[in-house]
Amino acid sequence: MELTQVTDADFEEVVLKSDKPVVVDFWATWCGPCRQLKPVLEAIAAEHSEIVVVKLDVDQNQETAAAYNVISIPTVNVYKGGELVKTITGTRPKAALEKELAEYFA
C-alpha cells in the first residue's frame, strides 16, 4: 500500500483535522533507515484501517518538520484530535512498531 504524501500546505487538513489517529513518517529520500521503515509502515497501514498513515519529506516541507522539532529522521509522530500524542525516533521492526502504536488501533 503506497502511503500518501503530505506537505506543509495540506498538513493541517490531512493530519490535524482527521477524525482518525494519523501516523506521520518524517523522512527524506537520502535517508537509508527511512527506506527501511517504509515497507513496515505500508504493511501497518494496509492492516489497520482505523488509523491513517502518511509521510512527509522533511527536505521539501521544512516548515512542518521545524514546527514539530523533527531533528532526526526517521521520526514517526502520532496525531490524535489535532494534537501530537506520540513521537517515535528511528526505525523499528514491524512487531515493535505495532506494539508502540497498538493503543491507536482501537
TrEMBL record:
Pfam families: Thioredoxin (PF00085). Signal peptide: none annotated. Residues 1-106 form the Thioredoxin domain. PROSITE patterns: THIOREDOXIN_1 (PS00194), THIOREDOXIN_2 (PS51352). Keywords: Disulfide bond, Electron transport, Redox-active center, Transport. Belongs to the thioredoxin family. PANTHER family: GEO12009P1. This is Thioredoxin.
